[in-house]
Amino acid sequence: MKFSIVFDNYLANEKLESFWGFSCMINENFLFDTGSNGRALVRNMVKMGFDIKKLEYLFISHPHWDHIGGIDSIVDINRDLTLFLPDSLSQLYIRDLKTLSKEVKIINEYPRKLFDNFYSTGIMHPIGEHSLVIDEGDFGIVVVGCSHPGIVNIVKRAKEIINKPIIYAIGGFHLFRSKEEEIVETVKELKLLGVEYITPTHCTGDLAIEMFKSAYKENYIPGGVGRIIEF
Questions:
Q1: Which of 23, 64, 153, 230 suits a disulfide with 7, CB 3.0-4.6 Å?
Q2: Which one-letter DSSP state was computed for residue 230?
Q3: DSSP letter, residue 231
Q4: What is the pLDDT of residues 11-48, one digit of tens each?
């Protein structure tokens, strides 16, 4: 499984553009979230060698501006997409996106299989956010947008869905306003749940990122625009 971060407020490749938000390519045909700036997203993807017209799936985790800002730019280039959208997204926007894509699948509170080995956690609160779960046979991987429901809660649900350990988590963990004690507890709980490798980025916050780096050592995998992770 290949993860390529194409939008992030951290920078791993100086030739790319960095703004607040998050988006990640999974393999060559699956886009997770779209960051806050569609034009920058498209430029980053092109510079990283991705052909947007070859995308098949677009997954939107939740309706915040820093994750949906690039939707229009993507569907302008490729209208042959299957969109996985949370029911927390504006119903008027969902209506419009149905006219701009091949297929729209609305995700509600119930976990569901999307296709093959890809699953949604189902909508979790607050905010109305769902996360992506990938079943890799012996273990699972979780991709998160902002983790508003709590990264620990998301991993617990993902584990229940596929009944396998979640050994890798990547995305925004929403700890940038958290105190040190809360971050320590989050790190501890994720380790107890069996998360062995980690890429905390976007809204995780500098302090939490440094604490994850210290706790996970060589199993900490940095994020940032341009980072390519093969797992």
A1: 23
A2: E
A3: -
A4: 999 999 999 999 999 999 999 999 999 999 999 999 99
